[in-house]
Write a sequence for this structure.
């Protein structure tokens, strides 16, 4: 893809800035996230955090049990990946490697913020090495920290990471963030049920869809149960019924 005028040729190399100070290949990596057609959301409350994403089966012949965008990294932390599936698998594998190496050397589990920071550092290095490319995926991580409680972090292809009270990634990121800003402003100290309900309501609202239990994936960590776990379809169905009755 070439550009006219002064920007011509600057999108062909990761490591060269354009005259406007932009790295086009990194910007294209952000656009690649939207190619999956998925939207993912993370929400953190006073004692819990959860992530939610759509579950789309790409082919009728695919075994749906093998399709998932939510991954466990350690016993008490995990993530939802949005974007290119192969890049997502690679980043999760690296996260698990880093977490296992950390536990081997230090004797305790790698905290969620350290995992996110390490992945962000690696991702940033990809933007300044000519023979590599940025990953076309975005990671939203939740985890339980023994000192800080529930944590929520987001790592993007540019190597930026930050803690959030709520965040999103994917096709409807802007709409999701606008919705979440209003909800978090009203109630920033949500309990576990409210956190899950807010995440479902946000995704349902921005996509204008009433979900079936098999169409979404939800994972949660909480003070009551700090182990990272995915909700079963029956548990998701219960949450959807509660949300429908409330509305």
């Amino acid at each position: 893809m070439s550009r006219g005028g002064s920007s011509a040729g600057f999108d062909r190399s990761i490591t060269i800035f354009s005259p406007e100070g932009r790295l086009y290949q990194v910007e294209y990596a952000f656009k690649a996230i939207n190619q999956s057609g998925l939207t993912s959301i993370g929400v953190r409350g006073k004692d819990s955090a959860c992530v939610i994403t759509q579950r789309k089966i790409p082919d009728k012949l695919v075994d749906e049990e093998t399709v998932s965008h939510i991954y466990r990294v350690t016993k008490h932390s995990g993530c939802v990946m949005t974007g290119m599936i192969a890049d997502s698998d690679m980043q999760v594998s690296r996260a698990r490697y880093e977490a296992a190496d950390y536990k081997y050397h230090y004797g305790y589990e790698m905290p969620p913020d350290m995992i996110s920071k390490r992945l962000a550092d690696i991702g940033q290095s990809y933007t300044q090495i000519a023979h590599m490319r940025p990953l076309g995926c975005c990671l939203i991580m939740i985890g339980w920290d023994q000192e800080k409680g529930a944590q929520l972090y987001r790592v993007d292809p540019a190597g930026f990471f930050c803690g959030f009270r709520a965040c999103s990634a994917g096709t409807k990121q802007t709409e999701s963030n606008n919705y979440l800003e209003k909800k978090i402003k009203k109630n920033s100290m949500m309990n576990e049920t409210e956190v899950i309900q807010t995440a479902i309501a946000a995704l349902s609202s921005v996509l204008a869809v009433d979900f079936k239990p098999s169409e979404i994936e939800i994972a949660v960590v909480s003070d009551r149960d700090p182990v990272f776990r995915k909700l079963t379809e029956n548990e998701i169905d219960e949450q959807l019924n509660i949300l429908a009755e409330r509305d």
Summary: The first helix runs from residue 24 to 34.
